[in-house]
Amino acid sequence: MNANVRRYRRCPLYLKIICGLVLGIILGLVLGKDAASLKPISDVVLGFLKLLATPLIFLAVVRSLVFTDAGARRAGRLMYLLMSNTVIAIIVGLLVANVVRPGAWVKLEVPTKSIDKKPYSLIADLLERIPKDWITPFAKNEILGVIVLSIALGIGLRVVRSAQKQAGRDDTQGLMATIETLYEVVTVVLHWVFELVPFAVLAVVANTVGTQGFAPFRSLLIFALSVILALSLMVAFYLIRLRLSSRVRPMQFLRGGVDAFSLAFSTASSAATLPVTYECATQKLHVRPENASLGVMVGGAFNHDGTALYEAMAALFVSQLIGQHLGLEQQLIVVLMSIVASVGAAGIPEAGLVTMLAVFTAVHLPTEYVAFLLPLDWLLDRCRTTVNVMGDLTSTCILDGRLPNEAAAEISHG
């Protein structure tokens, strides 16, 4: 038994996830609706990942701001990388939608009822996420609120530490040692949870396939393939940009990030994938921890390229479906609204459906047509979440610069 456990632990995480994915599909087809009984397994494991993601983000960002040169120049470069990726993603989505015109291939009945969700407001959403105290963001796993608190504490500690050093003392050493120790403890516990991830993947995939099946994919095949084509073009853009702007080579990037990509596709949750993405960046791609903290943790809260691409394509798809032409000016509005909405999208499954209402409303598309996308969303959500995670990791590698691999690895472990 011990030998079997050792062999299992030595197996790469992505292979375990792929096995869980395949077995989940088989179980879903065999069990049908009864596969829903497996859902508690995935809920528990993914809940642990999201629970640990919050302290990991907080501690990693504080460490980054206190110990490294996290000045305005590096933050500005990160924002440029994130925004440029998002704009390119939306443009790619609109180009594919204009060329393929998936809405012209589909004939569906007009929906009789609208989606049961409140209209999305970015300002209201952001105001709600501004932390009112130190406990609520951690209690509710509000990633944006945790990042605000970690940035405030990190900058405050940096200012106090600098002032004390000029005065010939440093009273922050005890606090920083505590933060460092807590960070190491969270990392150890995360590795324990990683061993359970494949079982969560098996459960969530079996539940999805068993209860929803593949019939919705067949009915909207052209739209689904168009979205997958656009997402594939976005992946190609990431790899080209890496080749031109980072020391990390495309194949090295794909091999090093395969655990994060597999988990993102399996769970459709970039929030649950954050700890694995950070692990891939620091351990597999040898990105310096300070850059991984900014690129993965901070960038992951704002960067949703796949979601932005999907929302832009969905708007054009519905406009073609109902014969409501969107001109250049309206498509520019789609671009701007997709950027704004993607920033507010949470890293949880199907959050993009909420923000999509803002995009539809901006160009006067009937929001009840969002209901057309619900049966298909379980699959495309996994695809766009994978691209979201890949965008985070791409920006992180570029932010890390062009240091030789050996030098970066030495800094990462030094």
Distance between the termini: 37 Å
Written as H for each helix and E for each strand, in order along the chain, the element string is: HHHHHHHHHHHHHHHHHHHH
What is the structural class? mainly alpha
Low-confidence parts, pLDDT < 50 over ≥5 residues? 113-117, 405-414
- Quaternary structure of the protein: single chain
Summary of the model, kept short:
The chain is mainly alpha-helical and 414 residues long. It has 20 helices and no strands.
Q: Can you tag this structure with a few keywords?
A:
414 residues; mainly alpha; 77% helix; disordered C terminus
Could you please describe the fold and organization of this structure?
The protein is mostly helical. It is 77% helix and 0% strand. The chain contains 20 helices and no strands. It has helices at residues 2-10, 13-31, 39-67, 72-100, 122-129, 136-139, 143-166, 173-194, 197-212, 215-219, 221-245, 250-256, 258-267, 270-284, 289-302, 305-322, 328-344, 351-362, 374-400, 405-413. The chain starts with a helix and ends with a helix.
Layout of SSEs?
Layout lengths: L1 H9 L2 H19 L7 H29 L4 H29 L21 H8 L6 H4 L3 H24 L6 H22 L2 H16 L2 H5 L1 H25 L4 H7 L1 H10 L2 H15 L4 H14 L2 H18 L5 H17 L6 H12 L11 H27 L4 H9 L1
Helix pairs in contact: 2-9, 2-13, 3-7, 3-8, 3-9, 3-14, 3-15, 4-11, 4-15, 4-16, 4-17, 4-19, 11-16, 11-19, 13-14, 13-19, 14-15, 14-19, 15-19, 16-17, 16-18, 16-19, 17-18
